[in-house]
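WARN  no MSA supplied for this record, continuing single-sequence
INFO  ligand: flavin-adenine dinucleotide
INFO  echoing inputs
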Amino acid sequence: MSNPEVLVVGGGPGGAAAAYHLAAAGHDVLVAEKKEYPREKTCGDGLTPRSIHELSLMGFDFSVPEFHRVRGLRAYAGDRMLELAWPEHPVYPDWGGVIRRFDLDGRVAGLAGGQGAEVRTGTRAEPVLADGRLAAVELHSGDRVEVVHPEVVVVADGSLSRFGREIGAARDFSRPFGLAARGYYSSPRASDDHIESHLSLSDAAGANVPGYGWIFPLGDGEVNVGVGVLSTFHRWKEVNTSTLMESLEATAPGSWGLSPETATSVPRGGKLPMSLSVGPKVGPNWVLVGDAAGAINPFNGEGIAYAYETGRIAAGHVHAALAGGDLALLQGYRLELDDTYGLYYRTARAFVRAIGRPGVMRALTRTGLRSRTLMEWVLRTMANLLRPGERHIAETAYGMVERIVQIGPEP
Ligand SMILES: Cc1cc2nc3c(=O)[nH]c(=O)nc-3n(C[C@H](O)[C@H](O)[C@H](O)COP(=O)(O)OP(=O)(O)OC[C@H]3O[C@@H](n4cnc5c(N)ncnc54)[C@H](O)[C@@H]3O)c2cc1C
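INFO  complex generated
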């Protein structure tokens, strides 16, 4: 396929989902992925019900041995603990999972291949600009360079998004982002059926840091352990994620068996572009999806589901533009993103600004963990699993936060 209708740059969750849905709609799709599968991706490897839903739409086989199913979330703040099941929801399942990205991403790219997309690994894409416009794309595979002229390019090259920046996309620095690091440990509780989060993170001086630590069981003898911090924390530039990892290792329940001796990997870190902070999302002949669009949920640092979702939503608009012979229809993608996530992410930004003050975070976690009802609502809000139209306490409270955010200044 030397001149595909659609070129997808990057074969992570965002690119694979866009390719899957476009190929399923009958388009010629070429995915350029610079690495070879299976490949490492620094991640917590945690899948919420939203990710499970998207994977189900693509026919993912959850019976593969690498996939570990989980029933809910266990939250700790100091010595207080609450175990919460994933909620019932009309759209999303009441279960989640953990699977190494090493195993997940190649499989999902394979599903796109199954729909007819060509997935070319070991192939780096570089934009060719003419008068500031994306005119063609160079595909570098080893010593070979091929120039292609796709009608539309889906940019799914992850959080650094070099391709996206070269064609004119930029991050809005006023919006929050996260920094996170993760490592693997062997653990006697590797088959636990809950993911675990630790809400009282402290730095080397013992001061509270807004963010959270996690322990996600992989079901294969190991757990994924990590920490994430938000840029809204006034001292976030001083935060050292390695120190936070050591602190989590030392303070997590001993039953996990976390210690320098049980670590099986060196911790690796990465950036979390949040709240759809990169734009424009649509150019004359391109769209941004996943981390390249800054799609991570600021409430919980989850990005896999949002990469799948934005990939699928973008595919719908690329299909409409190609079928209608009018690339101006790509703008519908931007509008649907605003519709789907605008208010929720605005609420999330207000929330993460508030918890940037360590006292607020401390007070919230201590008070919150006293009330199961409140924490169930917090879980459903943070995981974006509120039920539409339901007159339940959670929705009422969320509605109140929405109204406060709507009348307040842009956070
Ligand atoms: C430490 C950490 C922990 C996290 N934990 C979780 C978690 O538990 N759950 C969760 O939901 N999210 C988590 N996230 C976020 C999640 O990893 C991302 O949101 C998600 O990977 C975004 O998918 P993507 O497809 O947009 O980008 P990526 O997964 O980064 O994929 C981009 C792909 O593009 C390829 N590429 C890049 N440039 C080019 C190029 N020029 N040509 C060809 N190919 C290219 C890359 O090789 C890569 O395969 C975490 C992030 C970090 C840093």
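The pocket of flavin-adenine dinucleotide is lined by residues 9-15, 32-35, 41-46, 124-125, 156-158, 163, 180-182, 226, 270, 272, 290-292, 296, 302-305, 307 (CB under 6 Å).
INFO  checksum written, moving to next record
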